[in-house]
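Summary for the steering committee. The consortium agreed at its last meeting that each partner would contribute one worked example illustrating the joint modelling workflow. Our contribution is presented below. We chose a case with several input lines so that the handling of multiple components could be demonstrated. No manual editing was applied between input and output; the record is shown as generated.
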Amino acid sequence: MHMRASEDELIAAIGKVLSGAGPGVVVGPGDDAAVLARPSGELVISADVLVEGVHFDLALTSARDLGYKAIAVNVSDLAAMAASPRAAVVTLVLPTSTEDAWVIELYGGMREACDEYALWLVGGDLSRGPAVSVSVTVTGEVAPGRAITRAGARPGDILVVTGRLGASAAGLRLALDGRAPSTALDRALLRAHFRPVARVGEGGALAAAGATAMMDISDGLALDLSRLCAASGVGARLTVSDVPLADGATLDDGLRGGEDYELLASLPDLGSVHAARAAIADTFGVPLTAIGEITPDGLTAVTDGREATLEAKGWDHFGGA
Amino acid sequence: MHMRASEDELIAAIGKVLSGAGPGVVVGPGDDAAVLARPSGELVISADVLVEGVHFDLALTSARDLGYKAIAVNVSDLAAMAASPRAAVVTLVLPTSTEDAWVIELYGGMREACDEYALWLVGGDLSRGPAVSVSVTVTGEVAPGRAITRAGARPGDILVVTGRLGASAAGLRLALDGRAPSTALDRALLRAHFRPVARVGEGGALAAAGATAMMDISDGLALDLSRLCAASGVGARLTVSDVPLADGATLDDGLRGGEDYELLASLPDLGSVHAARAAIADTFGVPLTAIGEITPDGLTAVTDGREATLEAKGWDHFGGA
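What follows is the complete predicted structure of the assembly.
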């Protein structure tokens, strides 16, 4: 049996884990709303929700990893706009069976990610409910007119991707297997799934190199590439053998596995690819790989010199049929 | 049997209901994040989640009212800071049994409230889950240094409240009774519960009149007053007979019923009370009532000339014990 804190008491305990007043935080957690100093650029805002049984399994993830991931996947959306993170608010739904210590650990993981991405956790809300869900809204800033949307890709642009794909899907498979991780590779794959990295600096470097369109790969390369093409009103030709796969990942993991949170971008020419690659490799030690090109229409994949339709299929949290 | 839209299809249908590009919306819904023009003041941000079975019952509320309320209760938090609404993002968790038409109606209600409060709905996320939950984050603006927190009340300040209290609790009781509303009063009480009004203009008028502290009453006057006192490090003496009750509401509804979303504020003197009352009555036709005063410490209620401890008890979504 454990004591159940009332809402105000739990919020006070959480308050000790939160970021508190940082630079630019005029009013922090605990009031009706938080107040932040006037942004120096345009305001970028995004929200994602993670739901027990859909996005995570409480038997597989620790509270700390879940908190970390909930922040990181949202920061990834800021990175995809070439924005700098500023502040986050979180609404949390918890079953009555959830231990307060688990909740504090969850906030500890959120705080850890916030520290890593220079983000301030300034408020939110708590409620009871039938399953754990963690809804995060992040705000960031970008110089006026400098946000990179999905909509600017033009035929002839070169498609690039940061990092290597498929590690998250391979890590999830490993976690579902249930055996203890025995190698450094196992641990790297599990980490890719439970502690994804948001490519904030890389997004800035791609924008500086002239990216015409950008997004993060959350639902698999094939599906997300189709979304970038739809937003830009263009097509794409993907060179399958050039898709950089993570060690331990299959081609299907790389094309259709979700939650890699690498950046997919289009760049206008080889010079901009070289510039972006140099900046990203030098500063972050992360590869940048050309994987195809933007075409006027259609979505195709070239395998062994043969071109075929690329099925825009991947992770859909809403399911089909 | 009904066709189930995939996530992208449902999002496209929702997109038609959303606000689209308004003044100050640089990038609207559909990209990795939304982009808003640089705010002219400080950024105010707040989030609240409404969960099926905790905050609402799908058998009692319509999708449209639920959407409206989810926005209004969040705007109320901006009003409590004396901020002007700017943009909202929504994350929605839906069981597989939810009809797409219901979801579109929900967004219709959100859109209606956004139009009423000059708020732009610029993005969000959808997920499956075991129960409906609607998490809304709102952003607003306030002139630098002009946000009114809960923390500035000083002994001697006069406590005021907008509107009349208890209508939401009385409306919920009526809805739970299950009989059809038969009078104008019945309809007004139901409306108070299902379509609460955020006091945005009133918050601005209270700030202009010199409010030292302010909050919205979401969990009942007694509990929320205790929170304002705790944040300010003061006490309060409430004159029970002065608490303005809505027609059809009991004293308990007024003191401990939740979800009225009226504003509770402290003002430094009678002159500022008169100024705020005149502005609010003239412009909005809403009463402003003095209900007590701020004291150095303790929380008491005066009834028939006798002073007793006011129990800080009200609506706690997290329950006790």
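Residues 89 and 123 of chain A are 5 Å apart (CA to CA). The longest helix of chain A spans residues 63-79.
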